[in-house]
Amino acid sequence: MKVLIKLAVCAASVAASVLLCDAARAADAAKKILFFSKSSGFEHDMIKEKNGQPSEAQKILAELGRKNHFDFTFTKDGSVFTPENIARYDVFCFYTTGDLTQPGADHNPPMTKEGKEAFLDAIRNGKGFVGIHSATDTFHSGANGVDPYIKMIGGEFVTHDGWVPGHLIVEDRSFPGISGVPDDFGPPEEWYSLKNFSPGLHVLLAHNTEAMGRKAPYDRPNYPCTWAQSYGKGRSFYTSMGHRLEVWQTPVFQQVLVGGLRWAAGDAEADATPNMDKVTPQAKGQ
Question: With contact defined as beta carbons under 8 Å apart, do 250 and 177 qualify?
Fold first, then answer.
């Protein structure tokens, strides 16, 4: 009987150890990120796959993944947005344009309307989202009001000038990836003018439009460029940077992007309390 008891205790101990090891492995597992780059509208050079080779964005993200414990999957196929596939990922990273439920310019398979709803529900229920550059030039609002996707990402593209110097104001250096952004950072870039900002934005970087010369389309009060927000139980991060390869290659942009991915994945914590009233008050309602 004593032998049986000892065996039972040993078995229980081994089982507990296995459970602890499994839990440790799960905690240490690389975050799974779906990088989605379908272009139903204009396709940016950064995400073009030429002669069957990965895009410039894919190359840089793959390297950042190796360095930061991210497991990237790259696709332009909107049909992957099914509840079963969505459940596989921790974060969805978009560099997209247009109505993704339409084949559009690149003729890749679109999302279904049900796929779009399932994707938004997944973010609302706890998944992470990161939008880069033209992700705000996606699912534009119309006669029925602001599109649900725009509410999730936090703002909507209006227009842009050519490659012009920016002048960014750092609003929160404590957020992951933002501490290394220099004062007045703003390389020549296709800076976006944006509208339909969600009221819950925590602004991280804002445009100093006076320093940009108040030239169209930047003849407006200061407005957000990079931000984070809660979306239901999920996390949404966006930066309008990312048009040019030269910007992608800067350590500053890469740090901002990695910080956003880590926060969206739940690997980094930060205060995302809405602050538009304080830092860009005149942007509200634009």
Answer: no
